[in-house]
Amino acid sequence: MNRLAGQRALVTGAGGGIGTAIVRRLRDEGALVVGCDLAGSDLVCDIADEAAVEQLIAANQLFDVLIHAAALTGGSGRFPDVTTEAFDRYLTVNLRGAFLVARAVARSLIAAGRPGRMVMVGSVNSIAAEPDALPYVASKHGLLGLVRAMAVDLAHHRIATNLIAPGPILVERNRALFAAEPLRSGLARTVPAGGPGAPEAVAEAALYFADPNTTFVTGTVLTVDGGNTAMVHQC
What we know:
Strand order of the largest sheet: 3-2-1-4-5-6-7
Helix content: 40-55%
Structural class: alpha/beta
């Protein structure tokens, strides 16, 4: 307990699911956590709005930890049918938004001469691809590139940057989908752990990266997927 005592953390996407679990876990370890989302959290913020992001960071005390979990999810149809508007929307929210928040936090840490940890919640779609989700996959692959570039540029400022790649995680918005066939039996077959994981599993990974004792771990990817990406899937 109290691994994060005295640490201030910002969690985006804190209004539900994975973000809410991360907020709860960090608070359990003594962190002073500010959650932000479009609704249902401590603060309301559109992470794709540059002015809103800058105001959010300026209006609060210095954050030692950033956990960026905000994202636009869902499929968008077959690649030939993807609209330019859909592609732009995913890139704006999932990649540009992550860049804006991380840049604002990094600037504040550098100005204060303080070390920090930044954690991006990506997806197994950061390292692989699922069908009919090209804009989402592209945005999550881009997030991995962003993390690696930030790790290289920020290491000498003592700011560690890492990515969590969750697989299928059971949250309220996908509960009915995961319970219905063919997805229910498909997850049981393709996830060695037996099915979808819980948001708390991702929260534990976030806690690991948020711990000030893990500052030498940077530019890495931690998959939280029950072995999904480790297994060759037979027809």
